[in-house]
Design a protein that fits this description.
With about 110 residues, the chain is of the alpha+beta class. It contains 3 helices and 4 strands; from the N terminus they run E-H-E-E-E-H-H.
């Protein structure tokens, strides 16, 4: 966690770590590194987040007037990217066996 033209306070670090850990821990297990850059430019606060996994990397940035809103927006973007990646990697084609069985023939009674 680093800052450009802004001092990163303990409250910012704690907020960022709690939110980011909850997103990453619930979705993926093989995180290699994360990089967060908070910056302040002309009354705008920007949060840039990069999450590197073993086989993929995710990048997101958000710019708002409030630092915490920028952090939350960037984390939400990372969450969407990771969720899409996990869903894409999951094999949806395997259906339960009972759904693939042909329907049973209907027996007609001979009366």
């Amino acid at each position: 966690i680093s800052g450009r033209h802004i001092t990163v306070t303990d409250q910012m670090k704690e907020h960022l770590e709690n939110k980011l850990n909850s997103v990453i821990d619930s979705r993926v297990h093989k995180v290699i590194s994360t990089k967060v850059v908070l910056s302040h430019e002309r009354n705008r606060n920007k949060a840039e987040i990069v999450v590197n996994l073993k086989s993929h990397s995710f990048e997101a940035d958000a710019e708002t007037y409030e630092v915490f809103e920028a952090i939350d927006a960037a984390i939400e973007k990372i969450d969407v990217q990771i969720r899409r990646h996990v869903e894409k990697a999951h094999d949806h084609r395997k259906a339960p066996l009972r759904d693939n069985e042909p329907p049973l023939p209907v027996e007609e009674s001979a009366e």
